[in-house]
Write a structure and sequence with these properties.
The protein is mostly beta strands and 102 residues long. Helices cover 0% and strands 53% of the residues. A hairpin with a 4-residue loop joins strand 2 and strand 3.
Length: 102
């Protein structure tokens, strides 16, 4: 598990940064103009470039979070992460974990 970003709420979305070995960007999460039931709750942008999306979810413990998908040509595959509040920190943290294989 690694923290690859941090965000703060700006009222109707989020502002923050995402840092990986290949990526170091200021990012924002904005609601799409036309939301659909199965579509993402937020689009993720670096400047004017869209490179991800986030869906609202609720954990089995009843905790709300955002399920995030990031994709960039420098990545070998899309990255899936979770945006959540972490105790003892300000704002929200973007946490990535390598998927386990059975």
């Amino acid at each position: 598990m690694a923290i690859i970003g941090s965000f703060t709420s700006n009222g109707d979305g989020f502002n923050g940064t995402i840092k990986t070995l290949n990526l170091n960007v200021k990012a924002k999460m904005v609601r799409p103009e036309r939301a659909s039931e199965k579509g993402p709750a937020f689009r993720i942008l670096a400047g004017n470039v869209e490179f991800g999306a986030a869906w609202q979810k609720t954990s089995t413990e009843g905790r709300d979070y955002l399920s995030v998908k990031l994709d960039d040509p420098s990545f070998p595959a899309a990255i899936y992460a979770t945006l959540i509040e972490v105790e003892g920190t300000d704002g929200l943290q973007l946490i990535w974990s390598r998927p386990t294989r059975d």
